[in-house]
Structure formats: structure tokens, C-alpha cells
């Protein structure tokens, strides 16, 4: 019998406890706007392919949007979602690179070799060059394609860059996180470089401009210089609201009553991003695109709860396969939607955008084999049933194996020590180590370190390696049914076996010293020649040996890093 305990019980927990009785299907917190029957009439006919604007935010928590009951102000997102279709059964991946790779390829990460972790700045790795990307398919359909923001799909060769993978133009960063003003990124002590690029060149002249503003301004400039008579695709991948927590002071001032410093800065960044979306929407209308446009909004993974984010009332956080890590904020806003102003519970996954958007663009999918995504436009626009019935969240053979997992626990067909997760219908199965598993209420009222530990914790899961939940009835993953329903466990394990047979080897090569920014004029960028072959190191043994070497060399580095982080935290608490 599961034993629950409230640790660090506080006023925050009491105020937040009301969420526990939230009926997931009740539209109280995810409210629909009253709909006039006349508004459900058919939209303007698709006389030409629509303009597509895909907005992806970074590390925005499930709770951190106004229409999910947040204390953070997001009036633009709230209005766009209310006038469009809210996707409340929408799934993404738990970390950056996997979500982006699945969006761009329409394939699960087990089918691109990117099923482990993220692409590190010094790794000779990138999105496989044999994959035909979403922007390439849209180019085939006659679209002008542009990317603004965070790439994080590898850059060790020039062939890996956005402008070589289907985008006509690119302004943004290649690595996973940069300073919002200086665009510096450090991948360890003394391994720092500048990371803002215009096309394939380093954009030194843009330093000092806050990235959220810079990216929104670039989108407006693209729209102003393009003809609305010609179809356009713009992929806007904000680095907001990923760490470092930085925002213009005027936005922080709005949240001065928030006691928790990290939450205050995070909230300011979310609101700033919301205003950037407002400016993009305004530009669509000003320059004549809006009436024939489709705006898709998506987060890339769950919020990082110890950096200001909140996924409440979901379980877990960024980097985990609990719902707090993989259930995303998503909506579609478009005058072309037939049934607007509603909430959709159709099952949708980030891989679905590839076939959905190519189909909207009247592109050709007949020559693309092996897609894991589905065309979900009829489900979104007309309220039809989703063609998707299951989601492979992932199978990661390199992640730390659970101590108490075994082939025996997996009925002799699956080693439950392996980190994996799958959803089939209303059932969700997790094996191995799914990641940090607590329920963490929004941190808003206190300003001391202990405030981070006002959480509800499950205390009996340390010796487990298999979990089963009925996500429809239990979206917060509170009632593990693995022992009551071994038949369902076995059935879902068989699905994991099926998918695992189709997986390709993991692409996770060792870091290459040639990647150091000092060898590239002080900036992150491609370092390998076109003739250099790809490096493959996928074995668990090689990964362990590399980690041991790093640990031996970096004891002093870790000490320096600790004091640097401590100093940063002390300085931030003064604000």
C-alpha cells in the first residue's frame, strides 16, 4: 500500500491542496469560452496553402500559463488558446533535443538514434543527415522557410546547420542554453564561447539584445519583407524560459510580491515571452497573413521545478517520464479551424506535427517512409477522433539501470531495469528509473531555501521498477495499478518489445576537444570537415568509462563550479 507523506508542510501546501480535487475532465481551470453556434460554421475555404507559425517555448511548466490556473500573467496565450483549440491530451518529450528532433522528423527518438540524453556542444553528433526534415518537405511544397531561436540538434559539421536542413534563413543559437544578453555558453569550466548565429555566420553585432525581444523582432522583419501571397513557414523556438533566469527589470517588477526569487524571475520571463507572441500575432495581422494562417503553440518539455517552473498538479518535472515531464501545453489558433473555441482531448504527440503540417501545406508524404506521427488536423479542426491510440515516450538503454529491475520482473520478456515508458489507450507503463517523482506545488509565497521542499512525496517507490497508471482516471499518477493488473503490464511490455526491435543504435559519441570555441575564434560552431566520418559510441560500457575519466579529472572543477553556483545564488537572492 502506497504511503504518502507531506514533507516541509507549509501554507503553500495548504493553499495548493485544492488542486488535488480538480476533476481532470471538468472545464473549470481549462475553461472554454462561450461559443456562439454561428461560430461553428465552416471557415474560409483553403484557397491556397496556409502560412504556418510554429512557436516552441523552452522549459515552460504545465501549470505556467494563465488558462491552467497559474498566477503568471499570459493574456496573449490565454486569448489565442480560448479562440482556437486547446490540446489537453498533448504530449512532448522530457528534455530539449528529443522534442526538437521528433518535431523536425516526425519520428520517435529510437528511430533517429537520439534516445539518450541531449546533444552536447562538444559531441560530434547531430540530427541524422539521411532524415528528410519538416522544413525540407515544406520547401518542396513551395514554402519559404525560416527559423528563429534555439536549434539544439547538433552543429559539428556545416551539413548539420539549420540552413542545410531545410531553412532558408536562421537567426539563433546552436547549443542548449545561452546568456539572454551576451549569448555566451559554457560547457564546463573554461570551455565558454559565443553562440548567436545569422545563417552560418557568427552574429557578433547582436550581442546585448535580450533574446526574446530579438527573436520576435526578427519574425516581424521576415513577415514585413515577404509577400502574404506566397506561403511561409516560421519556426520560432524561444530560448525562454530556460535557465539562466534573466528578464528585463520592468517585467520582474510586476511580480515583486512573489517571495520566491527564482519563481519571480521565471514568471517575468514567461510574461515577456507572452508579449513577444502578441507582437508576432500583431505582425501577422498588420502584414496580411493572419486570415490564412495557422499558429501552433507548444512547450518542449516539462518545467524545471527547482528553477521557478511548475507542473502542478502533475507528478514529476523536466527530465522525467512522469506526466509533469511529458504532458505539454499546446494549442492551435487559426481562422481556418472549423470548430473553434473549445478544448480537445484527442491524443496528440509532438511527432504528429510533421504529417499534419505537411498535409496542410498540400505537400507530398507518399515518399516519406517510417513516420511515427499522424495527421491530426481533422481531430483539431473538426473534433474528429484522433488516429493516434498510443505513444512511445522512449526506450533509453544507456540511462542508469534501476537497481531492483530484472528480466524476471518483466515476465521474461523485458528487463525492467531499462528506462522506458509507453502509453496505450488509457494505460501508461513506466519501467526502470523514470526520474524525480514528487508532486511540487507552485513556489510563490516564501523566500527561504526550504520553500523548495514544500512537496508531497511518495515514500515506497525506491525498490520498484514497474509502474502502471490509468491516465484517464488518474492523470496525477497517484495510484499504481501494476500489481492489480499484471495482464495490462504484460500487454504493454509486449509493445515495448515490439518498438525495441525497430530501434537503431544509440548515437552518443564522446566529446571532441576540437569543438572548443577557442579553436573557432571564440564562438561555438562547426569544427569537423565534410570528410570526417560520424563517431559512434553507443555501448553502456564506453559511456561508463568516459564518465569515470571525467570524474577523476574534474574534482577541482566541481569544487570551482560549486562555489560559482553558490555565489550566483547569493547574488540573485539580493534582487
Automatic annotation (TrEMBL):
Highest taxon of the lineage: Eukaryota
UniProt xrefs under Gene3D superfamilies: 3.30.1120.10, Alkaline Phosphatase, subunit A
Database matches in PROSITE patterns: SULFATASE_1, SULFATASE_2
UniProt-listed InterPro entries: Alkaline_phosphatase_core_sf (IPR017850), ARSB (IPR047115), Sulfatase_CS (IPR024607), Sulfatase_N (IPR000917)
Named cofactor requirement(s): Ca(2+)
GO molecular function per UniProt: metal ion binding; sulfuric ester hydrolase activity
SUPFAM superfamilies: Alkaline phosphatase-like
Keywords recorded for this protein, A-Z: Calcium, Glycoprotein, Hydrolase, Metal-binding
Coiled-coil residues: none
Domain Sulfatase N-terminal: start-end pairs: 50-361
Region (Disordered): 510-551
Pfam families in the record: Sulfatase (PF00884)
Family assignment from sequence similarity: Belongs to the sulfatase family.
Protein name: ARSI Arylsulfatase
Species for this entry: Motacilla alba
Gene name linked to the record: Arsi
